[in-house]
# Entry
Amino acid sequence: MKKFTNWRVSSYTEAGGSCVEVGRSSAGTIGVRDSTMEGKGSTLEFTRTEWTALLNSIQSG
# Structure
């Protein structure tokens, strides 16, 4: 299991609201997890290519 570090919460999160956190592994993959689980839930893992495609898809609607 890869260790992800430097977790960041979305700037769109309101106090007490649920959102996602994004971190990076030493292998360069991006991890995404539920911020309400306090690091105890599952983590989705994306390659940089997959992450870029996801963000482009979200931004284009």
Residues 48-60 form the longest helix (13 residues). The mean pLDDT is 88. Helices lie at 48-60. Strands lie at 4-9, 20-25, 30-34, 43-46.
